[in-house]
Amino acid sequence: xxxxxxxxxxxxxxxxxxxxxxxxxxxxxxxxxxxxxxxxxxxxxxxxxxxxxxxxxxxxxxxxxxxxxxxxxxxxxxxxxxxxxxxxxxxxxxxxxxxxxxxxxxxxxxxxxxxxxxxxxxxxxxxxxxxxxxxxxxxxxxxxxxxxxxxxxxxxxxxxxxxxxxxxxxxxxxxxxxxxxxxxxxxxxxxxxxxxxxxxxxxxxxxxxxxxxxxxxxxxxxxxxxxxxxxxxxxxxxxxxxxxxxxxxxxxxxxxxxxxxxxxxxxxxxxxxxxxxxxxxxxxxxxxx
Length: 289
Prior knowledge:
- The chain is α+β, with helices and mostly antiparallel strands.
- The chain has 7 helices and 17 strands.
- The strands form 2 sheets. Strands 9, 10, 11, 12, 13, 14, 15, 16 and 17 form a 9-stranded mixed β-sheet that branches.
């Protein structure tokens, strides 16, 4: 086993890798987040023999499309079990165990690089939720030292809108294009780059205070409005890890992060076309410029 240390979301994560480690690190975009050995905030330990958990209640099942695997999130008492299986054969690719309140996740070995990459994301999601930190399905762009999160369902145009900012807003840059980290541990929402950035390799080890959250929807026009508190909560909630939202032990913590965020920064809905006018409308509304 090889132990490596990463700084993700302002936290030190120690990972005991399986044999696939030399290949998975560059594949997963982890190298910019490597750091010197230090006392870790969280540990993720692969290559462990995990006992069968009988009677675990399934809270969520979903497909991980990148490798067409079936993922199951289950719990028994305060023990949480995450399993990835091949969809067609049912062969188990990986098992993970996490006990609520602990700072460590145990996992079986796995030779599938995509499964390793996703399992690391899921493990860190379980660990960090209790410390007011979560991944957010979004594109994060930065202007003048502050970040904006663009939310929306897959295919809504988050990446397109972020790219329109690059083309039309001088000084803007992308921090992450799929799964930045949102932390309210300091009392104010901070957005961190992460190794998980979708199809575009924005694996950037930086962080910025959050200026606003914008939920996008496609429309035949461009219009933007600030959301009320209940609407803002509803806009943010689907973009935090859906599987974790199915269990109250995590949902309560994730809702706390959302509440901290919407009390600190505005949340908007942008109905838009994929054009420069939409990006400029958003820019002027958020930054009053």
